[in-house]
Amino acid sequence: xxxxxxxxxxxxxxxxxxxxxxxxxSQLYNVSEETIRxxxxxxxxxxxxxxxxxxxxxxxxxxxxxxxxxxxxxxxVGKQKIAEIIASMISNDDHIMIDASTTAVFICKTIxxxxxxTVITNxxxxxxxxxxxxxxxxxxxxxxxxxxYLALVGTNAVERIGSFNVEKAIFSCKxxxxxxxxxxxxEQFAQIKHAMMKASDQVILAVDSSKFGKVSFSKIGSFAxxxxxxxxxxxxxxxxxxxxxxxxxxxxxxx
Length: 255
Hints:
The chain contains ten helices and 15 strands. The longest helix has 15 residues, at 3-17. It is 38% helix and 23% strand.
């Protein structure tokens, strides 16, 4: 097993259990405790974990991004529920924009039965997922590849997205908070999502319940910019009232 693969598995375990123990990881992956300590040193240095006596705990700072392949495996059931609701909102012949979030990959999988869609995206993963669909128009945003994210960002990507007009823009975020609005960990991602909002007739925020009440570094937009919020469960009366006041439709699965 490659060191990178092992560290990603450790990150998955940290996301599930919140903490890991060196001796247990050593047995689990059949490597020495010293090797595990080096792995934890690397994760600590990258800001993904915090070393503790005999192990490590997850870094829950909302401005820290886990690797894409790790994030993709988090809350899979919730993301699938969100994707199913969004798929029901998309019609044949629609022109849509989809961001490079992990939730977007599930959405792409779910909408493949639609016909003659035009999809504009800054996600390499989305393009690969949709590469076998016939009669669709798949448009890349262009731009610069963001290392570790399978996403295209930068001025060229923002400008190209702004050159289109679509019926629906679908994107996720890292935080949604009553006063601060919709935020992301990275300014480049926030710029892409803001451009998608401006280019669309209907703005759909796909956000799982773990993001509610969280604030990240870079602002994407305010509630006034959002038309529909799709989440994986009822966010509660306070949130629903706030959305109602802003004229936002909130959709979630039936309990």
